[in-house]
Structures are given as C-alpha cells and as structure tokens.
Write a structure and sequence with these properties.
Structural class: alpha/beta
Number of helices: 14
Largest sheet: 4 strands, mixed
CATH class of the largest domain: Alpha Beta
CATH superfamily of the largest domain: Enolpyruvate transferase domain
Helix content: 25-40%
Strand content: 25-35%
Distance between the termini: 10 Å
Shape: globular
Number of strands: 24
CATH topology of the largest domain: UDP-n-acetylglucosamine1-carboxyvinyl-transferase, Chain
Strand order of the largest sheet: 22-23-1-24
Number of domains: 2
Bound molecules: ligand EPZ
Length: about 425
C-alpha cells in the first residue's frame, strides 16, 4: 500500500483547478442506467469511487468507459443483469444509488449492502421507506438488498431525517413511476440539484430540487443526454484550507462560489482574506487567525465533509474552538491521529473542544481513518514541524484526483511512496 511523506512548513501559493464533484458523479453515473440509450457525462473525476462504479456498471452489462480524460460514455442499451454483488460494490457508500436506478428502470434490483466511511451506524431506512412508499417490496438477505415492485406509483414521502442519499435514491426510483411523487424534508446539497438537473436533461420532470420539497412527475420514457458535472465544493474547500493553514495565497479555479458560501463565511470569520471571482475563489492568510465555534449542518449549513479539515486549521490557531458535528454520530475518530501530532482536541460525543496553538503540530506517522480524515492528515502534515508519514492513502484516492501533484505545484514538499520503501 502507498503512503504519503510530507515535510511541513512550506507556504503554499498559486492556482489549483478543481475537478467534478465526487458526490454528484457517484449519483449521476448510476442515474444513467435509467435510460435505454447512451449518456455522455463530462467533468467526471478520476477517483476510486468512480472507477468502482464504472466496474459495477460493466458488471451489469452496461458499456461504460472514459472516452477522454474526464468524459465518461455510458451505453445502457444492452443491460442484462440487475444484481450488483458484494465484490463489485464493496467499500463504497454510493453503491446504494444502483438500487434506485435499477428499480426505476426495471422495477427490480439486487445490490449488496453499501460500505463507505465509518462514522458509526449508517442506516438506509429512509431509502427503504421511500421505495416501500412507491410500492416496492424490499428485503435484505445474505447482505444483499432486494427490491421489487409490480408497478411504481407516485406518492408523498416525508423524510424523517434530511438525507442526501435517500433524497437522490427516491428521485431515481420515481422519475418513471406512475403519477407524482413529493419528497418533503428533502436534502438541498448542490449534488442533489445536479442529479435532478441531469435527470431533467434525460426528459424527466423533477421540480424543486435545492428546496426541501421536490416534486417528481413520472414520465413514460427517458432519452440519452450529454451532461457536465458541477465542481467539487469539498475538494475546493480542502485546497483553500491547505493554503490558509500555511499562511499562503491560493486560488481555487473552476468553482461555483455560491456552493462555497458556508465555507468562505467561516474562513472570513477567522480573519482570512477571501476574494470571489465568477468561477474562482482566492484565499490569503497573512494575518493571525482567530478561533471560532463551528457546527456542521445539511446544506446550506457548514458541510460535514469539511469538518476534519477545519479541525486541523483550528488546532493550529491560538485560542479555544468548538466543533459540533450534527450530521454524523461519530465523525471525530481522526482526532486521535491529530493529537499524536501535538494537537489538543478533546471529544465528547458530537462535540470537539480544540485548544488551538500556532506551531503546535510536529510530524509523525499517522493513518487516514476515512476519506476526509485522510485529507485532514495531509493538511496537518503541511504545517507540522518535520516529516509526516500518512498510511491508508487508499481512502484519499476515493475522493481526490492528483492531490500530490496539485500540492507540489502549490509549493508543498510531498511525495507518494510504496509502503515498504
Ligand atoms: C452523503 O452521504 C455523502 N456521500 C457524505 O459524504 C456526506 O457526509 C453526507 O451525504 C452528508 O452530507 C455521498 O454523497 C456519496 P445522508 P449519505 O444520508 O447520503 C442519517 C464524503 O466524504 N440517515 O445525508 O450517506 C445518517 O445516519 C462523504 O464525500 C438515516 O438515519 O448521508 C446521517 O446521520 C462522507 N437514515 C444523516 O442521515 C437513512 O436512511 C445524513 O446522512 C439515511 C441517512
């Protein structure tokens, strides 16, 4: 297995171009199965989760392949299989979208129970509630979720909890259902909107995405589409924090500033200079920064997927900061690794108290405990005194393309080596 070695305290400056959004890509790629036609999806990031999904699609008899750097061609005209077994979907959370897409197209689906980052229990009861409401019977046998319906009929579904996955999965199952489906208490993330826009480009009738009430009017047929995925707000936020923590001057390009508002608002509150352009954001950290209180919330609140990265920044800022993680029951496992580097973080349930101190981090051997925690370890290595070695890099590969190259170009001393090196 590979590992990253970072020699810290190098100031980052320059531009970095942001890729397509992982959490939009992993929803839109399965959505292409809904149509007995060809879809061309542009701005698809080359990351592990996408590669795994492409493998799963080909396992289902779809002809899915990259036709150039970041453009994926998905031909679902010869699908022969509706069962995605464990081997082709293990380790990935987003495999559950295959359920909604296969159910939406064939009224039947069999998909292995999803994997993904360990934030405590990650139920899918709301997904199943949505499928049941549409008329599907859902069973779990030998780790495989089986869903089947004589006919999918539109209805009103109130989500007990704001769920990105359940919102998207119900949309996928409902676009060809008979009648109208209303999802209430829906998630409003940019990738929910992006998926709805993709479905509409295929001839679906989805209204209200981005609000907490989404109305889907079932249509008889869908057709192939060409679509470009939105930029990744979390990848962009990660590089912004990498620039800020090193006292640098970094511009993230190909972004939608509107999607970044919660992140930029907290950086401004800390004293970071933020310059917004049409499709870029520049962050400059040439003044001492302030500690803050932070609470993660569903969009448009501060994104939970930026919580570990912000914790590292706050650990290196003088003063006491408090983070409340309100989306996941247990998303602070990485703080043990950070405290090995000299951070002073105490976790009580969904609350982390950070006794921040400039220059407190020193290089150590740490591991990535999940995707965003891995990104946080990289950020910690950028500011730590001496060398930091990060193992379990496979987690980082799930969500970040060219991270080492991008950071090197910004001035970081980082390299990827084989574990036994
Ligand atoms: C998506 O996960 C993202 N993953 C996660 O990003 C992100 O952290 C999360 O949304 C919240 O924004 C993808 O999009 C592939 P949820 P998802 O359903 O859909 C509870 C990353 O780093 N819940 O919005 O699985 C759940 O336990 C990843 O890119 C139920 O109770 O998250 C959680 O507390 C990590 N029952 C809350 O809702 C359900 O049926 C939000 O979960 C579903 C969810």
């Amino acid at each position: 297995m590979d590992q990253l070695i970072i020699n810290g305290k190098k100031r980052l400056s320059g531009d970095v171009s942001i890729n397509g959004a992982k959490n939009a890509a992993v929803a839109i790629i399965p959505a292409a199965l809904l149509v007995n036609d060809v879809c061309i999806i542009e701005n698809v990031p080359h990351i592990e989760d996408v590669s795994n999904l492409v493998t799963a699609l080909n396992y289902l008899g779809v002809d899915a392949k990259f036709v150039d750097n970041n453009t994926l061609r998905i031909d679902s005209r010869n699908m022969e299989n509706v069962c995605a077994d464990y081997d082709c979907v293990k380790g990935m959370r987003a495999s559950y979208y295959l359920l909604g897409a296969l159910l939406g197209r064939f009224n039947r689906a069999e998909v292995s129970f999803p994997g993904g980052c360990d934030f405590g229990t990650r139920p899918i009861d709301q997904h199943i509630k949505g499928f049941n409401s549409l008329g599907a019977e859902v069973n779990l046998e030998h780790g495989i979720i089986q869903a089947e319906a004589k006919e999918l009929v539109g209805t009103s579904i109130y989500l007990d909890v704001v769920s990105v996955g359940a919102t998207i999965n119900i949309m996928l199952a409902a676009v060809k259902a008979k009648g109208t489906t209303i999802i209430e208490n829906a998630a409003k993330e940019p990738h929910v909107v992006d998926t709805a826009n993709f479905l509409n480009s295929m001839g679906a009738n989805v209204k209200g995405a981005g609000t907490d009430v989404i109305k889907i009017t079932g249509v008889e047929e869908l057709h192939g589409a060409n679509y470009m995925i939105i930029p990744d707000q979390i990848e962009a936020g990660t590089y912004m924090i990498a620039g800020v923590i090193t006292g640098g001057d970094v511009t993230v390009k190909n972004v939608i500033p509107k999607h970044m508002e919660a992140i930029t608002a907290k950086l401004i509150e800390m004293g970071v200079k933020v310059e917004e352009q049409d499709e870029a954001i520049r962050v400059i950290a040439d003044e001492p920064l302030k500690s803050i209180r932070l609470k993660t919330l569903p969009y448009p609140g501060f994104p939970t997927d930026m919580q570990p990265q912000m914790a590292v920044l706050l650990a290196s800022v003088d003063g006491t900061s408090i983070i409340t993680e309100s989306v996941w029951e247990s998303r602070f496992q990485y703080t043990d690794q950070l405290n090995r580097m000299g951070a002073k973080i105490v976790v009580e349930g969904q609350l982390a108290v950070i006794e921040g101190e400039k220059e407190c981090l020193s290089g150590a051997k740490v591991k990535a405990t999940d995707l965003r925690a891995g990104a946080a370890m990289v950020i910690a290595g950028l500011i730590a005194e001496g060398a930091t070695t990060i193992t379990n890099v496979k987690y980082i590969d799930r969500g970040y393309e060219h991270m080492v190259e991008n950071l090197e170009r910004l001035g970081a001393d980082i390299k990827r080596v084989k574990q036994d090196a």
